[in-house]
Amino acid sequence: MSTKSVPRVLVLVCSTRPGALGPAVGAWLTETLKPRAGELDVELVPVNLGDLDLPFLDEEEHPSSGVYQHEHTRRWSTLVDAADGFLVVTPEYNYGMPATLKNALDYLGREWAWKPIGFVSYGNTSAGTRSVQHAKQVVTTLRLVPLGNTVAIRISDALEDGKVRPGAALAGAAVGVLDELVRVAHALRPMRERVRPGLPPGPLPGSYLRRLTPDDAPEVTVLQRCCWVDEALVNDTLTVPALRESGEQVGEWLATWHTTGLWRDGRLLGMVRTRRVDTDWHVGRLGVVPDLRGQGLGRWLLRTAEAAAEPNCRRIVLRTGVRSRRNIGLYESEGYQPASRAGDDGTACLSKDITPHKVA
Questions:
Q1: Domain boundary residue among 188, 222, 241?
Q2: What gap in Å lies between CA 340 and CA 138, rounded to an integer?
Q3: Is 212 found in the same domain as 157?
Q4: What is the total count of domains within the chain?
Q5: What string of pLDDT tens digits covers the 360 residues of the chain?
Q6: Which domain does 183 fall in, by range?
Q7: Domain for residue 213, yes or no?
Q8: For the whole model, what pTM was predicted?
Q9: Of the candidates 230, 224, 293, 294, which has an alpha carbon nearest to the alpha carbon of residue 261?
Q10: What CATH number is given to the structural domain containing 263?
Q11: Taking the C-alpha atoms of 299, 305, 306 and 312 in order, what is their torsion angle to the nearest 10 degrees?
């Protein structure tokens, strides 16, 4: 799956028959959608299935295993995994989709999951719509999410000399499909993250950890506003940085700190940030959404931050409001001691030495 902020949409041209109309329809679709893709900040990636050189499925292991022996499968897996959605350009062969499309779908498993797929069909009597109905039965099994909007091109009405005739109705339908695809892709992003390999599980069922990036600034800004109100009230101050930062300022520090977020179903439940300064490992912005406090998530995030301390760091350092007795009590229970007097900014500094075996 793409980790970029710009959604990536593969435009899959399915027919490999010599002289097929698929490439012309695919070229029309890509060109027609370019202006709208720019407005939506979407990357369109044309892919002709004929260029992939995929033989009929020749992998020994089941696709769900993710174990691929052949280079052509690994290339295909990389392409699909990096995509956030698909636009399929398909003809109708004998009331169904082309074997090339079915074969390409069958090669993979996890890479398809929780991504939207839209269809642009072409044909004679039915304009390829029976191919789309056939394909929808298959893609849902792969946990792809087919769109309601489609583009159906009747060859006799819309094609001339092997090219799609420009027309407002078809162009409008194509833009409608792209709009829906992008909305669904954004909505399904949390589901895609959950099936991404390598994401550590969190302490709650269905939760997981992911490093936060500047693209997550809106969610982090909201979390900070929720979490640091109590800090401001207890310390009788409105100068708490976490409450005053703009989304742009949050994005700036997300680019320089290693910040870990705890997610579930698209909601940022908590976070903590860390970085090394000389031989100190600094921990900060430890916060958990108010409705989940008291369940040990803050302590779990703190220990996660400690476990990430870089080699040769000698102590862990953190700060909190001098009157934040609940926070100070948590840190003291985890072995932290006052490191200095309260600063002029009304914060207390606490530290904990790191053992040679590193923290648990």
A1: 188
A2: 64
A3: no
A4: 2
A5: 444 467 899 999 999 988 888 999 999 999 999 999 999 999 999 999 999 999 999 999 999 888 999 999 999 999 999 999 999 999 999 999 999 999 999 999 999 999 999 999 999 889 999 999 999 999 999 999 999 999 999 988 878 887 888 889 999 999 999 999 999 999 998 888 877 777 899 999 989 999 999 989 999 999 999 999 988 888 888 888 899 999 999 999 999 999 999 999 889 999 999 999 999 999 999 999 999 999 999 999 999 999 999 999 999 999 999 889 999 999 999 999 998 765 567 789 999 998 754 444
A6: 8-188
A7: yes
A8: 0.74
A9: 224
A10: 3.40.630.30
A11: -170
183 and 213 in a single domain? The answer is: no
Q: Which two tokens stand for residue 97?
A: 């989709």
Rounded to 5°, the CA angle 120-33-88 comes to 25
Tell which phi-psi region holds residue 296, choosing left (phi > 0), alpha (psi between -120 and 50) or beta: left
Asked if residues 283 and 272 have their Cβ atoms less than 8 Å apart, the reply is: yes
Overall residue count recorded for the chain in this entry: 360
Rounded to whole angstroms, what are the CA distances from 78 to 52, 89, 114, 142, 274?
Answer: 12, 20, 16, 17, 31
- Is 196 inside a domain boundary? no
In this structure, what DSSP letter does residue 4 have?
A: S
Give the whole-angstrom CA distance, residue 118 versus residue 84. Answer: 12
Residue 17 amino acid letter: R
Give the largest CA-CA distance in the chain: 83
Looking only at the bridges linking them, the beta strands covering 315-321 and 280-288 are parallel
Q: Which is it for strands 8-13 and 85-91: parallel, antiparallel or unpaired?
A: parallel
Residues 6+ apart with CB under 8 A from 205: none
